[in-house]
């Protein structure tokens, strides 16, 4: 709860301060923030490999939040709306669940704890930064763009898991810790149920943007 509160305060102060800056400085801050999320995942992976040796089933940054963090710099450098449309729903849908039901074995101040909260909460702060500072907003089409992009990622993870006997994206089995997936049945039924709920869930995320859209 303290970690969540800390990032709520950090996000509010960052966005409030950045609104007073020039466009070029806003873009610089976005780049620094985006790259820091990506670097945190890379450094965390290197440290794990250094201390524990490389384990292909655990050490590839292919879980959705880690994968998203690696994509963020591409968005910050290009600021293309298609990346915003895809990442917005991935982050607000998937990363929010990771924050509410964290898959963590270590507490503060362990590096795993710090990395987990910096990346997951940082992704949510960043997507609000992009919304308020880059002045980007999703449309109804964005829901389906993000959904179909996620299907491509799902297929990629099926192939990766088949080749490595891993559980990236938790599509081979559910996480060990308690999550909302526990209410959706065993494998593979929870995957099918999540697929059915994805578009309604994305639409629910889009609803506040729709209700607050600018009107002529």
From TrEMBL:
Key words of the record: Membrane, Transmembrane, Transmembrane helix
Pfam families: TMEM164
Spans traversing the lipid bilayer: 32-51, 82-101, 113-131, 143-160, 187-211
Xref: InterPro entries: CHP02206_TP0381
Keyword Membrane assigned: yes
NCBIfam families to which the protein is assigned, alphabetical: intg_mem_TP0381
This protein's name: TIGR02206 family membrane protein
Species whose genome carries this gene: Urechidicola croceus
